[in-house]
Amino acid sequence: MREFPYTFDNDRIHAVEAKDFSQFIVFAPYIWETYRILKDKNILHLIEDAGEQGITIEEIENEVEISHYGLRVLLEAGLGIGLVYRKENRYRVSKIGHMLLNDNTTLVNDAFMRDLCAVGAPSLYSSIKEQKPVGLSHFGEWNTVYEGLPKLPKQALKSWLAFDHYYSDQTFTEALHYVFKNSPKSILDIGCNTGRWTLQCLNHNTDVKMGLVDLPGQIEMAKREVEQNGFTVRVNYFPGNILSKDFELPKGYEVIWMSQFLDCFNEAQIISILQKCHRASNKETRVIINETFWDRQRFKTSSFILQMVSLYFTTMANGNSQMYESNIFKKLIDKAGFKIVSQRDEVGLNCHTLLELQIK
User: Would the pTM count as exceeding 0.90?
Assistant: First the structure.
């Protein structure tokens, strides 16, 4: 069993490994392009379908519209990258290649990077310097991706939603049992997106009433989904910008739920949102936050994914938020006037943390 959480407090690799990995960093643009071509032109799939028998470069050439030279340089690069291996001049897919073709987490992250983030990645420094998501301008002139979400190109929106849902959906089963352990009669879903969590709650409990809070465009998407699933009576909608000084949260809800929401804001904004939650709460209100913290992961790869997703927030989402370290996040909770009464790590895909708050 690996120790929890994974820590970054020492240099774990040997010098030879460090030199190897450093080459992957400096040649990263070619690694990315090689992989994209081998996958998009069906070459990796052909090699995988050949199984243990493998396939020759000539046999691949008969199936794709790429020259022998092109295939040769791509496949030789694929050998070095580790996508394929070659035995007796026959190519076979490697474990890495197999993961890139079949692993759900990898497929979701790949589509998210390809269809949304890659075009904005070169704007990382300018986004940091200007404190705004400069890369987002490739899709439209919005201050944040959330404002433009309904207007994103179809494929970019599809991949954004798939990325968001993939990670959050995995937490629903455990989170439902946690949230409903006290049989709440009402839940306020802040940052509801397309209403998937609300639908889970409505199906889980026939009495619970839901309130949905989000930007007007997202509320329209959520309302459409909720009504298509036959729910109208037990749902109220509160469209608006939670950062607006004039926008206050409705009072009287027994549970306030925020899932993968607060990471969309900078530290000052998080405090402001939590203070609004505070004003909408009483001593019995349970405020439950479902978040991913890069320092609360068992596996290094999980931390790495979250650290990279922070750069999406920098370049594409808003220019000023991130996937937070838990200690930083907890200080914001304290400043907003809440105390943490419960913490549950490794929820869902073992990467989420459930924090339950109450007024101090």
Answer: yes
